[in-house]
Amino acid sequence: MRRSAPLLIVTFGLLTLLASFIWYSQTVLNNLHAEAQQTAGMYAKVFGAIQDTTSDPAAQTTTLVDLIESLKKLRVPVILISTSGEVQGSANLPFADTLAAPHVKAYADTLDAENAPLLTPVGTVHIGNTALVRGMRVIPLLMVAVLGVLILSGLVMLRSEGHAEREAVFAGMARESAHQLGTPLSSMHGWIELLRERDDPMIAQALPHMENDIERLERVAHRFERIGRPPRRDPVDVAEVANHVVQYFSARVPTLAHSITVRLEAAAGGFTIAGDRVLLEWAIESLVKNAIDALAGRGGSIVVTVEPVDGGGVRVRVADNGPGVPRDLRRKIFSAGFSTKESGWGIGLALTRRIVEAGHGGRLQLLPSDNGAVFDIVLPG
Per CATH, is 234-379 categorized as 1.20.1640.10? Predict the structure, then answer.
């Protein structure tokens, strides 16, 4: 009960905000409906006056007075100033001064800042916004408040619920992210097809890289879909997966200043295991990406080794010659939320360990090394 109390409070606040939002929105709709009916009546009056070619200035004045009365019913702030500069009438002002008061005429400038004045043969009509229009500003605030409570509720759930509940929320968010990525990816495929029809050497040269990056995004989205689901048990060639990762990063690491090389060393023989190819590729890629980050600004080499393990199984070793992992941080790097990078989320190695150990029954280890960092993924046969 103590753990669930914050969640209940946030849920109650969210429901209260949603109820308020629905009630306020319905009130706005009702008021807009009433204003639409009154506006239609105003339109009929003005249109009738325009069509009446026999009307004299007095009749036009009468029509204008009727229009002002209609604006009064709409609670529209309005000031009528004659051609001679005198205030002839006003309605729905936030004060009760007489028409002759200088403050009334000066308030016309405030109304002009909200709406452009209406010029007529008998004078200028200065019109402001209704309370309803001003109240519409509350809706975005309510939406922001609802969004804030939603975010707060997510944080409370992550903090108050147990490990299983946190993983369920994370898995749901990941799968929703994958779902949201589907639409722009489909659109990008369409744009590429259109670009392919252009006879432009530069576009032709860029298209293969664009297609590779889109394929990469699709793989990432597919990975997010796999979070929280039982790992598959398909035949997977670990050496082929590692080679795919190496080829991808080899084409994208720096090659000029502070160059980084990524290469694969795979022993002869088969390295097929029962596993989830998507998740295993993610795990190997995470280790290679960390190694690249460690070598950023200094250059170096990364070696991905695939070899058999005595007694059955496969070992994937990712070694770099970078600065390595400080001894006092070796026990923390696999903890969720811990990161040595300022912009890091601290989930890469934690997720990699989960994929290897919980998903495939293997081991992920940081080996002692005098030069750089060496990670081992050991997968059972």
Answer: no
